[in-house]
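Section 3.1: Structural characterization of target chains.
Under the original work plan, the team committed to producing a structural model for every single-chain target entering the pipeline before any wet-lab resources were allocated. The record below documents one such target. The sequence was received from the expression subgroup and is listed exactly as submitted; it comprises 385 residues.
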Amino acid sequence: MPKRIAILGATGSIGVQALEIISKYPKHFEIIALSTNENVDLLSEQVSRYKPKYVAIADEEKANRFNSTAANIKVDIGNNSLASIAALPEIDIVLNAIVGIAGLKPTLAALEAKKDVALANKESLVAAGSIVMKTAKRNGCRVIPVDSEHSAIYQCLSNSNDLKEVRKIHLTASGGPFREFDKFSLKSVTVEQALNHPKWNMGKKITVDSATLMNKGLEVIEAKWLFGISHEQIDVIIHPQSVIHSMVEYVDGSVIAQIAATDMRLPILYALSQPQRLRSDIPKLDFFNLPPLTFEEPDLQRFPCLGFAYESLKTGGTMPAVLNAANEVAVGMFLRREITFEEIPKMVEKAMNIHSAIQNPDIYDILDADSTTRLIFEHRKDELI
């Protein structure tokens, strides 16, 4: 029987690639539900092609433009629609590819409904990692990482059920488009330069996060919760070739790495199919034509966002939620050309300094920290620049 899948954020980069790869395995997967925030034109095309039974559209105004000739399709509209389809009884696994804090409630809704979640929404774990993982454990379901780095760690750890055997997790990072820029050059980078990632084809927000190394900082926070280890056991290594997707170092000195082409369809497919591995036509590595593999330490002076992520983990409580919200707003401002690239980390740091973290927060504390941080940007922006 095929796995029945809901894809939240179907019109984004991960969602589009997921549908592409899923369509190659009709005996293994069945698309039950799709969602979008506002890209109803693409959603209409996807519905015509993949014929889901359910659709959710978060943006009520844009929903008026949704046009589908599909018979018997059920359309849910508004912010709560995402959580509603995540909890549908017909679904076996939810692929959450929503960008931003909007992905948190659907993650929790799916887990409360005892659905496995293939998670590409960083914010769920960054803002509320403890709550998400406790919810999964309580309901006997799994959070399966989709990010290439966390998928790599997930696969490397499959040989060991004892975290006491793990000494370190090494998350690799390409270094982004500005790896070789000095601090002076970073002052004048453009939006177009920031969106020109050397290795990965991703959405705009995550591409800018990769350029600031905030993306790797968010992955450090995710790794803590996904794998149940301390932040002291998580290292970041700059690996420009992006061939090694991450590594696990064990206490005996052995290091296990996951190596593959730089293609997001691979971790997407593994997240949905595992523990089974399906034969794919994804390009394979040509070991005889690989460039030399190099490794560098991250420079926290030029890219302080990675350091802020570690600081937020050390502080704990609601601080990671503030880090995430501040970064999300600052990146949006940069993409709209309202601030410069170097002002992104400055605004994040100042927002963190303003916040007094609440320890052992519940979901309402986390959402309040998120909304309060966004209000600071709206009403006290001059204090943050």
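The longest strand covers residues 29-36.
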